[in-house]
């Protein structure tokens, strides 16, 4: 959403992440809407806890590994750290998707039966 060539050039390295983001995020955000609509707040809370734990684990492990392999003074460190951050966000989205998918039959199906 910019015409600044420097920004466009800098963003090209992250294009694969950006192309996969809607695919990975779609299920997570769809489940969010379903659980919010069903007022299943306990499932939403728990999925958020698991998602945060997944994010912190992947980010922490990635940064520890990055620090062990690449010196922080390296010109590539920032770019690689950004890839670690994107991987951590993907782990966050996948954790939400997996948890909410697994909980669906127990939570949402039970609520739907009560309404009918």
Features:
single chain, 116 residues, mainly alpha, 4 helices
Q: Could you please describe the fold and organization of this structure?
A:
- This protein is mostly helical.
- 84% of the residues lie in helices and 0% in strands.
- The longest helix is centred in the C-terminal third of the chain and has 39 residues, at 77-115.
Percent range for helical residues?
A: over 70%
What class would the helix/strand composition place it in? mainly alpha
According to DSSP, the number of beta strands is: 0
The largest pleated sheet is described as: none
Q: Whole-Å distance between the termini?
A: 46 Å
Which whole number gives the mean pLDDT? 91
- Helical run tally: 4
**What fraction of residues sit in β-strands?**
under 5%
Low-confidence stretches: none
3D shape: elongated
In brief:
With 116 residues, the chain is mostly helical. It is built from four helices and no strands.
Chart the SSEs and their pairings.
Elements (H helix, E strand, L loop, with lengths): L4 H7 L3 H23 L3 H29 L7 H39 L1
């Amino acid at each position: 959403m910019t015409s600044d060539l420097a920004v466009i050039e800098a963003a090209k390295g992250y294009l694969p992440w950006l192309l996969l983001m809607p695919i990975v995020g779609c299920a997570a955000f769809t489940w969010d809407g379903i659980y919010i609509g069903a007022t299943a707040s306990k499932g939403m809370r728990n999925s958020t806890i698991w998602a945060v734990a997944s994010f912190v684990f992947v980010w922490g492990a990635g940064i520890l590994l990055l620090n062990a392999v690449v010196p922080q003074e390296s010109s590539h460190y920032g770019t690689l750290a950004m890839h670690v951050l994107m991987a951590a966000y993907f782990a966050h989205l996948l954790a939400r998707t997996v948890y909410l998918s697994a909980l669906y039959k127990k939570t949402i199906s039970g609520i739907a039966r009560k309404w009918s």
